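Quick one: structure for this chain?
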Amino acid sequence: MEPAVYQELVDSYPDKELFAYIPKLGKKYSLSERFNPKQYREFIRNSQPWKELHQWIKSDQFIIGVLDALKAQHIELGYDPSMSQGKRLKRLLTNFSRKRSQGNSARLKARFEFSMLPADGGHILPHTDAPAKIITLIVSMLNEGEWNPAFGGGTDVNRPKRVEDYFNRINRQAQFEDMGEIIDTYEFTPNQAVIFIKTFNSWHSVRPMQGHGSSAMRKTLTINIESHL
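Got it. Here's what it folds into:
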């Protein structure tokens, strides 16, 4: 993001008291349309910087921009967000009646989540994301020099130990000991977006962080682009 815009968003990031604790996903706090939705909507409504960002992310222009950025890197997902609802329904009915497929007629929608992991042991267990998710962007939210790299906090791309776990379209959750190799790690640094595509083997996680006794939080904005019929 532009530095001034990014700084304004970092400075106005919501307080921990608004978040819900989500232990089933690891050691994580979330504020979103799904977790503490009332507090989420109220915060967005009363924060001008986040209200403007929310409006942009909810727009077709944002989704088209992400798809175009991926296409420039030779990643084409077959979605057409400019297609009208009527045309989309007609194509779905035509393809169903002919029992064939001509491109993807699903509607794409975007949402975002405020996410915090405590530096003292915070983590997200290995998973591949729900089938409806198409694209995920993880945007770090921190000031320069605020985070100690020794804590960890990077996003790991994993390869499971067992061949049986290679195919995980339905997003079975795993444990860290189920992963045999860390293929790559995207470090947690300011004003960075990590983008990845949901696939049958898109295993990723955040390993337990090592900031023992620290009150620091790994703060992110997680943007999901999902398919809806």
